[in-house]
Amino acid sequence: MESGSILLETLKSASSISYVSSRLGISRPTLYRYADLYDWGERSKIPPKIRRFFDFCLKNGRLDEEDVVIYLHDIGSEGGSWGEGSGRAACMTGGDRAMIVLRDPAREPSVEVAVDISGETIVIGTYHIAEDRGFVLIDDLVPGHRFKYRTVGLDGSRSGWESFVLGDRGSSPDRRSPGGPFRTP
How far apart are CA 12 and CA 159, in angstroms? Predict the structure, then answer.
């Protein structure tokens, strides 16, 4: 089944349609049908999980395979959820990377990431979202270690800390060289 969908063309440039449909738990023809509905403005006929993924694909001007894999790794497979404390962000991990999706990036455009060392919380970085994205991507974290994140509002207010651990399993082979460049969000 072929489609002239702008959404599908964007997605095909970044990932395999078979991979995406399997991670979303739908068939390829169903993915094509949902993409057409999305393009035709009939978004209410698309399940919310899939509609959010489509929104992510089109909001992200620089969509690449790693973005798709990390997004689908947790949120696309029912594993992601908004943070326990404030519900302001969700964290997804894969390999040595974390993606923190912000619920309201216009009001809270930054994320602080920290570790606890000898009982003290040390902020290791503050990440600001790019204008055309609703998430920050953090590379080169150490798998198996516990990290924390919190959102930072325009007025300087901060949400509560949420913890995450990078597992030893990656969501896809890491195609970057071990000494490769750090990708800023």
Answer: 36
Is residue 27 domain-shared with residue 93, that is, in the same domain? no
* Amino acid sitting at position 85: G
End of a domain among 27, 43, 77? 77
Q: How far apart are the first and last CA of the chain?
A: 36
pLDDT in tens, 128-156: 988 777 888 888 888 888 899 999 999 99
pTM value is: 0.51
pLDDT digits (tens, 9 = 90+) for 16-25: 888 788 778 8
Give the residue numbers spanning the domain of 63.
6-77
Site of tokens 């068939």 = 27
**Are 105 and 181 a contacting pair, CB within 8 Å?**
no
Structural Rg of the chain based on CA atoms: 17
Do residues 139 and 177 lie in contact, with contact meaning Cβ atoms separated by under 8 Å? Answer: no
CATH number at 141 reads 2.60.40.10
Same domain? For 124 and 160 the reply is yes
- CB neighbours (10 Å) of residue 9? 11
Spatial contact of 122 and 114, defined as CB atoms under 8 Å apart: yes
Domain presence at residue 104: yes
